[in-house]
């Protein structure tokens, strides 16, 4: 079903080539059904790439989806042009009087820092506090998941002995949870991080449900029991070549980094990697939009003021 995207957004022609159902503003305003209104806080350095990845997965909704983009006001990204931010992004101050059906907080390359040491932590904290009254459900991705677990539930992160990078097998541990509907008993997911959430505190928390587990990567999906939060510890939005791009980048920096595990065919770095998690990623986003957002959000947000 359609996703409403600005005409000049760079992600648009890419998605149209993939036959993703894109709708223009004029057509969107003539629809009688109520769209889902989402807010995307994009903390990733390559914002245009992340926009495309997330919009692709959000397109598999039974309803029209409107997406507003915001960036941090307290920190300016060096990997995106100011013209792109000015054309397609707002700041939190621009949207804080609005209500949204869903919020997505992306990962960020700041996991080596304590949360309070991150330049924009006060702003992120303000947004997460605001979301309690203004957002039906929030999806937190990678560092965004660690930040959300820390802010909402007091679960800190821990450094890993070595960076985890690659594609890892996960086993579902919750058979009946609505977010796991249609998902295989065993599935693959990309991970790329230097820290983990404190798994002991995570499993022990009474307000959280761990939906899967992996011997190498730990749990990927954690849901709050009130359905207000979904935490994704990996990067299921990644394209087939994203880990390759990161690997080449880290090599260029002179880092002593291993090739992503279980990623290259036959473990041959000269062979192009394949996306083996695409259908799983679509299901996760679809289930979140349906069960945690659409089924729970009020038709008229104004009645909840």
TrEMBL record:
<comment type="similarity">
    <text>Belongs to the MetA family.</text>
</comment>
<protein>
    <recommendedName>
        <fullName>Homoserine O-acetyltransferase</fullName>
        <ecNumber>2.3.1.31</ecNumber>
    </recommendedName>
</protein>
<dbReference type="GO" id="GO:0008899">
    <property type="term" value="F:homoserine O-succinyltransferase activity"/>
</dbReference>
<keyword id="KW-0012">Acyltransferase</keyword>
<dbReference type="InterPro" id="IPR029062">
    <property type="entry name" value="Class_I_gatase-like"/>
</dbReference>
<feature type="active site">
    <location>
        <position position="237"/>
    </location>
</feature>
<feature type="site" description="Important for substrate specificity">
    <location>
        <position position="192"/>
    </location>
</feature>
<dbReference type="GO" id="GO:0019281">
    <property type="term" value="P:L-methionine biosynthetic process from homoserine via O-succinyl-L-homoserine and cystathionine"/>
</dbReference>
<comment type="pathway">
    <text>Amino-acid biosynthesis; L-methionine biosynthesis via de novo pathway; O-acetyl-L-homoserine from L-homoserine: step 1/1.</text>
</comment>
<dbReference type="GO" id="GO:0004414">
    <property type="term" value="F:homoserine O-acetyltransferase activity"/>
</dbReference>
<keyword id="KW-0486">Methionine biosynthesis</keyword>
<dbReference type="InterPro" id="IPR005697">
    <property type="entry name" value="HST_MetA"/>
</dbReference>
<feature type="binding site">
    <location>
        <position position="249"/>
    </location>
    <ligand>
        <name>substrate</name>
    </ligand>
</feature>
<feature type="active site" description="Proton acceptor">
    <location>
        <position position="235"/>
    </location>
</feature>
<feature type="binding site">
    <location>
        <position position="163"/>
    </location>
    <ligand>
        <name>substrate</name>
    </ligand>
</feature>
<keyword id="KW-0028">Amino-acid biosynthesis</keyword>
<keyword id="KW-0963">Cytoplasm</keyword>
<keyword id="KW-0808">Transferase</keyword>
<feature type="active site" description="Acyl-thioester intermediate">
    <location>
        <position position="142"/>
    </location>
</feature>
<comment type="function">
    <text>Transfers an acetyl group from acetyl-CoA to L-homoserine, forming acetyl-L-homoserine.</text>
</comment>
<dbReference type="Pfam" id="PF04204">
    <property type="entry name" value="HTS"/>
</dbReference>
<feature type="binding site">
    <location>
        <position position="192"/>
    </location>
    <ligand>
        <name>substrate</name>
    </ligand>
</feature>
<dbReference type="GO" id="GO:0005737">
    <property type="term" value="C:cytoplasm"/>
</dbReference>
<dbReference type="InterPro" id="IPR033752">
    <property type="entry name" value="MetA_family"/>
</dbReference>
<feature type="site" description="Important for acyl-CoA specificity">
    <location>
        <position position="111"/>
    </location>
</feature>
């Amino acid at each position: 079903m359609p996703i409403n995207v600005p005409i000049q957004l760079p992600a648009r022609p890419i998605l149209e080539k993939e036959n993703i159902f894109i709708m223009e503003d004029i057509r969107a305003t003539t629809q009688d059904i109520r769209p889902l209104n989402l807010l995307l806080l994009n903390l990733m350095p390559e914002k245009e790439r992340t926009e495309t990845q997330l919009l692709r997965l959000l397109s598999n909704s039974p309803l029209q989806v409107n997406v507003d983009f915001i960036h941090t006001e307290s920190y300016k990204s060096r990997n995106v042009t100011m013209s792109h931010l000015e054309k397609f992004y707002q700041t939190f101050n621009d949207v804080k009087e609005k209500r949204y059906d869903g919020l997505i907080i992306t990962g960020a390359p700041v996991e080596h820092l304590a949360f309070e040491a991150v330049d924009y932590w006060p702003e992120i904290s303000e947004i997460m506090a605001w979301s309690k009254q203004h957002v039906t459900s929030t999806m937190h991705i990678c560092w965004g998941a660690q930040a959300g677990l820390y802010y909402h539930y007091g679960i800190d992160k821990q450094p890993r002995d070595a960076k985890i990078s690659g594609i890892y097998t996960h086993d579902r541990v919750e058979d009946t949870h609505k977010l796991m509907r249609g998902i295989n008993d065993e599935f693959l997911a990309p991970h790329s991080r230097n820290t983990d959430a404190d798994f002991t505190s995570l499993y022990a928390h009474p307000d959280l449900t761990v939906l899967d587990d992996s011997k190498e990567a730990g749990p990927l999906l954690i849901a709050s029991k009130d359905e207000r939060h979904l935490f994704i510890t990996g990067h299921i939005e990644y394209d087939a070549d994203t880990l390759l791009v990161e690997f080449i980048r880290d090599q260029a920096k002179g880092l002593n980094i291993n090739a992503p595990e279980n990623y290259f065919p036959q473990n041959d770095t000269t062979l192009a990697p394949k996306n083996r998690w695409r259908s799983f990623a679509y299901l996760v986003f679809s289930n979140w939009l349906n069960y945690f957002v659409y089924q729970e959000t009020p038709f008229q947000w104004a009645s909840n003021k």
